[in-house]
Design a protein that fits this description.
By secondary structure, the protein is mainly alpha-helical. The chain is 59% helix and 4% strand. Strand 1, helix 20 and strand 2 form a beta-alpha-beta unit.
Length: 532
């Protein structure tokens, strides 16, 4: 195929993907996302607003972060800095941000294309990437706001591509060490977004090395290679993200989500080994559909092609076939970390599409190769490829499109009245202000109020947010009726109004617009008065 045509087709696919993934902001550009996104959004947003880099978190963000970050940003500054630059270039605080997030979160499509194109050709590469555009699990991770994880996992195919290129050059007696060192540099960049992707990439590199060592009867790394690679990785990580490295080494998520070091590596529910994926008992707030291959990948048609492709690879067993099979084996291991009581294993399910779809695409190529007659193959090839695109569009895209189109309807994202209030707060309240939200219906929205106003909110899970230690430190109260009017809960509006009249009658009203009111209160106001 002509290179210009190929580049055009790939660019068209990626731009179409970005268009589709930005559906949530095309009609409503106000921020959306679950509880974590406001935290991830905040440092970059502050940087763009203040034209300064951030090493320690701004004071208003401190309560959002776990105490064990010691006041530093929880992740390396790469994501935050890039986010800030894109906001500035885009000239828009919200829409530009989400275009940036769609671009970066969908980078797996290009990364996977490079890997498959180099070692398997245009058709498997394009089919794999086409399916990735509609990978519902990847879309959910992006929509829910685990952006750093999505970007980190997007590095996996390109890292493996360069590392495998080094291995191929070694076994073909034309060793090119620069492929190895480029893969190490990419590992560093991957770490600068999220360390979990690095763990998987290193595991693939390690197992691939061992398997090919056994197959080829030659160890592909020299002592010099190993020492230089380790030194390059460690020195760059220490130079670029020393505080975040200390946090990772200090706890590595061990004490999070109910885990402790004493529980690690203890056998837990070995029956899980007989399931590919299953909703865990300690489900971290993910829908049941997230753990279903059928629902995440448009039924079983991709699974059928995957098994055909896997059988084809097992039969051939070339080095590049082993490259793909090793990833399947390791993905199985990683998503079963719960069997040995390791945390955060559910996150690795996001890798399923980028591991399965290339093999499914090769399964289609295998079907084409079964036609021995040149005449039949001539017509079977376009028919089977057309069938692949048809199923991808009518099944996978059909499932993915409404998830993006309907992501976070007005009740579940910041509404215009709330956004206007945050802009007033940012301009008019002191930098050290502590605001208590009353009436806002969801905890995630309270976190967005916090981020967008760049002022601290004493945000809790209760309707009146009186369940937080910072309650008695608040000097402002935001009484928010806007959510209640959206859901037409006039009974609760009356209750909130009674409370406002009773508790805030002697306080100074500073803002009253679009069913949102902001009061300045005495810091000594009694918690007992905050009741209905």
């Amino acid at each position: 195929m002509n290179k210009n045509t190929e580049y055009f087709l790939v660019l068209l696919l990626w731009l179409t993907t970005i268009y589709m993934w930005t559906l949530p902001i095309q009609k409503n550009p106000l921020p959306y996302g679950d509880v974590d996104p406001p935290v991830h959004y905040a440092p970059g947003d502050w940087m763009s607003e203040n034209d300064k880099s951030v090493w320690k978190v701004p004071s208003y963000i401190e309560l959002m972060y776990a105490k064990d970050t010691r006041g530093y940003v929880a992740y390396p500054p790469t994501f935050y800095s890039s986010h800030a630059v894109f906001q500035i270039i885009g000239g828009d605080r919200t829409k530009a941000s989400y275009i940036f997030l769609a671009i970066t979160s969908s980078m797996t499509l290009l990364s996977l294309y490079v890997l498959m194109r180099k070692f398997f050709g245009f058709i498997p590469a394009y089919l794999s990437s086409f399916l990735m555009a509609f990978s519902l699990r990847d879309i959910l991770v992006y929509v829910m706001g685990q952006w750093m994880q999505a970007i980190s996992f997007a590095f996996v195919p390109i890292i493996i591509c360069f590392y495998f290129s080094y291995l191929e050059s070694f076994f073909n007696k034309k060793r090119k060490d620069y492929y190895l060192y480029i893969s190490i540099l990419l590992l560093v960049l991957q770490y600068l977004f999220h360390p979990q992707g690095v763990v998987f990439s290193m595991a693939v590199m390690g197992l691939l090395t061992l398997v090919l060592w056994f197959k080829e009867k030659a160890f592909p790394l020299t002592t010099k290679n190993i020492l230089l690679s380790i030194a390059l990785f460690v020195v760059l990580i220490i130079a670029l993200a020393p505080m975040q490295l200390s946090l990772v080494l200090g706890h590595a998520g061990i004490k999070q989500n109910g885990y402790s070091q004493s529980k690690m590596f203890k056998i837990n529910n070995p029956g899980r080994l007989f399931y590919w994926s299953k909703m865990p008992d300690d489900n971290p707030g993910l829908p049941a559909s997230y753990f279903s291959y059928r629902q995440m990948n448009g039924g079983i048609w991709t699974l059928i092609l995957f098994f055909i492709g896997a059988a084809y690879l097992l039969f051939r067993k070339t080095r590049k076939d082993i490259l793909l099979l090793v990833q399947v084996l390791l993905l199985y291991v990683f998503i079963h970390f719960d069997v040995i009581s390791l945390p955060r294993y559910t996150r690795y399910l996001e890798l399923e599409a980028q591991v399965f779809y290339p093999i499914a695409a090769l399964g289609l190529v295998c079907l084409i190769s079964l036609f021995k007659s040149t005449f039949l193959k001539k017509y079977a090839k376009p028919v089977l490829i057309a069938a692949f695109f048809f199923l991808a569009l009518t099944v996978n895209a059909k499932n993915a499109y409404p998830v993006l189109r309907d992501a976070y309807p007005s009740m579940y994202r910041i509404n215009p009245a709330q956004y206007d209030a945050t802009q007033w707060i940012k301009k008019n309240l002191p930098e050290k202000a502590m605001v208590l939200p009353a009436g806002t219906l969801t905890y995630a929205k309270k976190k967005w109020l916090w981020t967008l106003s760049q002022r601290t909110f004493a945000a809790g899970n209760n309707f009146f947010s009186d369940d937080v230690p910072e309650f008695n430190l608040t000097d402002y109260v935001m009484v928010d009726y806007s959510d209640l009017y959206i859901v037409n809960r006039m009974d609760v509006v009356a209750s909130l109004n009674d409370w406002e009249t009773k508790v805030l009658a002697g306080s100074t009203k500073l803002f009253d617009k679009n069913n949102v009111r902001i009061y300045e209160v005495d810091k000594n106001w009694a918690k007992e008065s905050f009741s209905t």
